[in-house]
Amino acid sequence: LMVSTVVLCQAEQMTMAACPDQCDCFNNDETVDCSRRGLSRLPQLRNTTRRLYLEDNGLVVLDLRLRAAVELTLLIAERNLIERINVTESRLQELNLGANRIRAFHIEVRDTAGECEATGLKEINLSLNLLSEVPRNLSAFAPNLEILNLSYNEIESATLDESFAALVALRYLD
To answer: Which of 48, 16, 51 is nearest to 32 (CA)?
Structure first.
């Protein structure tokens, strides 16, 4: 069983010298566009990366290379082959993983204090994946979530756990 695990916590800072060769960078390397490059793995990222575009590649795993992007607020990785994601960053505001192969979306919270919140995370798009159940414990890690898109998955029973009651900012659930 393939599992998508999201771990959101602060990571150590790493410095890279330049824009990844496979990508285009803008705004002093704050925006990194690696879309439609045939990537099968993530390139090395800079700690200044705020917006990362990875659409239409062959990525299966979003791995610990995301750790370097400690300022990351936007991650768009639609239309890949992603089955698993490990994100070690808590500044995300938008996470778009639509049209991948994610079967389950579990949140694993871990940091030195044993807790981690992505208070800035406003939008999660998991549409067009292979999810069979609604993600659980979302309010523990994204208490200010406004948009959750689960459309076009294989969810048979849209049972919401008690954490959804705490998502008072949630205005769109599909």
So the answer is: 51
